[in-house]
Amino acid sequence: MSAGRLGLGAGGTSDALARGLVIAAAVAGVLGIGAVAWPAARPTARPLTTPPASTPPEVPAPRSTVAAPALPAPPAAAPEAECECAHEHHEEQGDGGDDGDLLLEALRQEPARVDEVLERLRTGSLEEAGGVTIALGRFRDVRVLRAAAQLSDARDAEPWRRAMALEVLDGLDAGPAAPVALRALADPDPVVRRAGIHALPPRATIDPERAPAVLAALGAALRRDADPEVRRRAALAIGRWATDAGELGPVLSSLVRDPSPDVRAGAAFACELAAQDGPRVRQALLRSMEAGEAPLVRENAARALEALGPLAEHERRALERVAAELPY
Amino acid sequence: MTSVARILGALLLGVVFSSSASAQGFIQLPASGPGYYWYGDSFGHWGTPRLVYGMERAAARWAREQPNAPRIGMGNMSLRRGGFYRGHETHRTGRDCDVRPIRNDGQEAPCQITWGTYHRDLTALAIRYCREATGAYEVLFNDTRIPNVRKVKGHHNHFHVSITGDGGTVANDGVTASVSGGLGAAEGIGFVGNLNGRRRRR
User: Fold this and answer.
1) From the list A90, A164, A272, which residue is nearest B114 (CB)?
2) What pTM was computed for the model?
3) Is A66 an 8 Å CB contact of chain B?
4) CA-CA distance, A122 to A315, in Å (whole number)?
5) Cβ–Cβ of A131/B199 closer than 8 Å?
């Protein structure tokens, strides 16, 4: 994918950033390619950082076959103040962090070297790419967002690599990832479609006017995708996004109709995540708690119903029945 | 690439990204969600549905009830198909999850119970949420001032949640087979974890 197609050339993006535009909105414009264009996005709760002026964001280099460069050296472990108490647990010491933490800390100390780490994601082996995804997903930098979005869209890249790029976007929780995630939903490879759903950012990070389009896309995936895991993740995503019981319609249908018990269990959990009350919601949950349904579907439905609040007598009895019959 | 490396790579791809969700019925915890973030190994956030839903449930409650606290750090669970997991030997069946102690400085970063940044009350609350949401039968943690935790070496920088039961796997549960059968590809993932562990520490 060329820089021109992304609209990143000639320093236009740098200028925009330099003018102090909200980064999420700027990148949303830059990424506004493909089927869904996003004219604006609300800034995320944890805004992405801009690269320092001396290191303007660059278009990621084309994928190459050269070996990935050495990663930034991890910083020396910073001494931490000890608590004042003198428990027996003082005997145990350690660095307290893992490799992802060390890499993340290194990136924060040397943000200009993020391109080296991104190169691992773009060209490294499975284990090399997997070794940097968590750190990149927590390094809230516009260059990471842009590179991960590009890689997610790169049809010539391996599906697993695109899935890892989407995993990075999942960690970033940035509004501009929404159109990328939606495009992934149309990918022929289920691995990419699954990762695309996880990459969908929280509803609060995008323009509210765009939420119905996202929910419609998720609803379509829930109804029609051949892969049960895609459907399950779509149900959960709707549960996280729904702000009223009406938006849970596709989830309630799946809760009682999907042939896969995994999907039905996910739909029940989605109702709990959504915490949106309504007669249809309660009715579907009660139906899913009946004997003969898979145990996890019953458990998730019972927990979702319980979380909705005051229960009618018949609901309370159904809840008690599930609690008595499940082996947990 | 040598043919051996190609074979290993193919096995690895099959384990991480095969077409089914997981032969064991495991599902993957998303990299972030309401109230939590990932840390640890990107290959190791798979678990039984009951564990994953339970941890997400705990985190969502955390987000609702502790909106000003840092998010909960969800660490290693199991590999996609379970089995041997280097450095996390007990995390074989998708029923275990490591969680970071909560810090008192708002940072979402490593923390030990001996550090001044350790927040005991919030950590105790996180343990309670995880226990209630998953039905955990045991929590391993070395701050024994928190009730109902068991001290085990190495658990000063995370608490370990263990659930029991069938884990809620609806699909055919082949965990036992994969563990006792020494699934080669699963060992490959452990190998990856080992690689990641060594690369940046040299």
Assistant:
1) A90
2) 0.76
3) no
4) 52
5) yes
